[in-house]
Amino acid sequence: MTTPMVVCEHLTKRFDLSDPWLVRKLTGMPKRELVAVDAVSFEIPRGKTYALVGESGSGKSTIARMVVGLMRPDAGGVTINGHNLNTSQDAVSLQAVRQTLQMVFQSPYSSLNPRWRVNDILLEPIRAFDLISDEQGQNRRVRELLDQVGLSPSDAAKYPHEFSGGQRQRISIARGLASDPAFMVCDEPTSALDVSVQAQVLNLLKELQRELGLTYLFISHDMAVVRVMAHHIGVLKHGRLVEANVAETLFRNPQESYTKTLIDATPKVMV
Ligand SMILES: Nc1ncnc2c1ncn2[C@@H]1O[C@H](COP(=O)(O)OP(=O)(O)OP(=O)(O)O)[C@@H](O)[C@H]1O
Fold first, then answer.
1. The CATH number of the domain where 23 resides is what?
2. What digits encode the pLDDT tens for the residues 58-71?
3. ipTM of the assembly?
4. Does any ligand 1 atom lie closer than 6 A to the CB of residue 36?
5. Is 106 near ligand 1, meaning CB less than 6 Å away?
């Protein structure tokens, strides 16, 4: 059996919501702590999509941040491609993990530098990871990336504001692909888009997965989107994984009433 691309074990994150120490001392208010993510464990097989679904505040983005290494868990850990993000001291393998994982954010408006042409946005990761040294090769790679996400070579000279929301999300995806990742974390990548555009971007992500064998962690509050994308689903409620299963089984035979409520709130047709 091949090892999973991602293993999360007992991931836990607490936020300190207390007032400052002096205020607490003067008012006698106790310390307050929020357990935003509570011992969450899951695995993502290579080339598959694992969706984390749950209402606002259930801990989805906090998990995504810990998985990409933007936030340290208070307990538990994340292993990507065999490297433990939280305990590994080996700078070379951590650099390899950083290259292999990318994140696509919710807002295609704020995640692209408005002062850079698309060409420079796509060249940045290619240069940062020292992937292609000659200029001709770099330009060829930019054209290939644009083609992969359904944009044309002439788009390289434009600025982000010259594109629609869906096209900007395509640029974000192309930028994610530029470092040849094997694993992408997609945090609500279509929730800022119109429904018709959503379907196109979801289809693009699925095509890229088939073509490039990508593994996705897909974060969403929307069961209709998850139904289209996921092979496996984990349902989060107040930071805890209340149900997890193969997507088809979870939709056909949900065990938890919370999962049923999420499914019942879903429009029946989407893509
Ligand atoms: N930096 C922080 N400091 C304090 N509390 C936080 C912080 N970040 C998140 N939280 C809290 O942790 C809980 C989980 O938040 P998180 O953003 O992970 O949820 P989510 O499921 O992604 O929600 P949404 O869909 O609204 O983004 C929420 O109660 C949130 O208020």
1. 3.40.50.300
2. 999 999 999 998 89
3. 0.95
4. yes
5. no
